[in-house]
Design brief:
This protein is α+β, with helices and mostly antiparallel strands. Helices cover about 30% and strands about 15% of the residues. It has one domain (about 5-220). Strand 2 (about 15-20) and strand 3 form a beta hairpin.
Length: about 220
């Protein structure tokens, strides 16, 4: 990764990439279970407790950082989260954090899908579990992409492809929420590509828990 690439780190110590054209930082990966666990330990909302987290784990079981490989790396991502819960996580992260709109997500994707993946030298100050997880996921998606014969681009490295479907705000036709991303077929068989620029439309996003839906956040400096 070029030395000009700028990162900052969220409240749980996970990296966010600066995109100049967007004027915002974006999570390098979809939000992970480690970040969710930091959130659970810190918030006092009664809705977010062990029983709530158990519901998510029943849909997509947890794998520890050292267990991650190309056959299970999506288990590191927190999924089954409803959009309002993702918005609550964004408020916990701090000012300027939000779920992306469809346009913002597509802008990030367009900026990253033509850039080849490169190695990232994460700082020594990164927490050990975070560093291990980032390293293992990076190795895992590379192996998965090689096996599938797909190009290895920054969008793949950020799991915008071969990751989870991600909530985006897309207000139209009576909807507020849509989904963008591309799933690894071993995670879920939904055939969807973000390349056409239109979001998927789950019918009941505020009610259903979808095992393959996660999210990432943007942060616009105030």
């Amino acid at each position: 990764m070029s030395g000009a690439t700028l990162f900052e780190y969220d409240r749980a110590g996970f990296p966010m990439l600066w995109l100049e054209d967007l004027g915002a930082f974006v999570h390098w990966l979809p939000v992970t279970k480690i970040q969710c666990e930091h959130f659970l330990c810190d918030v006092t909302d009664s809705s977010f407790d062990a029983a709530w987290y158990d519901q998510l784990l029943a849909l997509n079981p947890r794998a520890s950082p050292k267990q991650i490989d190309e056959r299970n790396y999506w288990r590191a991502i927190v999924t089954g989260v409803q959009p309002a819960e993702a918005e609550r996580f964004a408020r916990w992260c701090g000012e300027g954090y939000s779920l992306p709109t469809l346009r913002e997500w597509c802008d990030v994707y367009a900026a990253c899908k033509e850039v080849p993946a490169q190695d990232v030298a994460w700082p020594d100050s990164l927490p050990g579990r975070v560093r291990t997880l980032l390293t293992k996921i990076d190795l895992a998606w590379r192996k998965a992409a090689a096996r599938m014969g797909t190009p290895q681009m920054r969008a793949d490295q950020m799991l915008m492809r071969l990751g989870a479907m991600e909530w985006v705000e897309d207000v139209a036709d009576g909807y507020r929420w849509g989904g963008m991303g591309q799933l690894h077929p071993d995670f879920h068989g939904l055939l969807f590509t973000p390349d056409h620029g239109r979001s998927a439309r789950p019918t009941r996003p505020e009610i259903d828990r979808l095992s393959y839906y996660g999210f990432r956040l943007l942060r616009r400096p105030q």
